[in-house]
Automatic annotation (TrEMBL):
InterPro entries: START-like_dom_sf, START_2. It comes from Thermoflavifilum aggregans. This is START-like domain-containing protein. The lineage of its organism: Bacteria, Pseudomonadati, Bacteroidota, Chitinophagia, Chitinophagales. It comes from the Bacteria. Coiled coil: none annotated. Residues 1-125 form the START-like domain. Gene3D superfamilies: 3.30.530.20. Transmembrane segments: none annotated.
């Protein structure tokens, strides 16, 4: 199996870190933009899309700062993360997404995140 590469995407967001975190770390928030249905039990999110279910375990989190998840069917050292930062220059809230993909899939995966984050920004009224 080839080693997948970590990549990082950044998105400016016009809302408070507290509100943004709710959309990134709660079943109700994630269900607004990330999946059709989201459940959480024993630190494991179940994400449903068109009848298929994928599960991701919460690896680490700090309220209003970040949440790191690992798909249960992925490599142990791979994860995806939503991190909330403040730009020191503009004082703007920035959502940083970290994920892993094969080198040839990074562009497609980045486009998928762009689409998902656009939906998130629409839901929180940040577009």
């Amino acid at each position: 199996m080839t080693k997948r590469i970590q990549y990082t995407l950044e998105y400016p967001v016009r809302c408070s870190p507290a509100i943004l975190y709710e959309f990134l770390a709660t079943p109700a928030g994630l269900q607004e933009w990330f999946a059709d249905k989201v459940d959480l039990r024993d630190n494991v999110f179940s994400f449903s899309w068109n009848g298929s279910v994928e599960k991701a375990q919460i690896v680490e989190q700090k309220p209003e700062e970040y949440i790191r998840l690992r798909w249960l069917n992925s490599q142990k050292d791979e994860y995806f993360e939503f991190r909330i930062q403040k730009s020191e220059v503009t004082n703007e809230t920035v959502l940083v997404v970290k994920d892993f993909a094969d080198k040839k899939e990074i562009q497609d995966q980045s486009r998928l995140w762009d689409y998902q984050i656009k939906e998130l920004l629409h839901r929180i009224g940040s577009l």
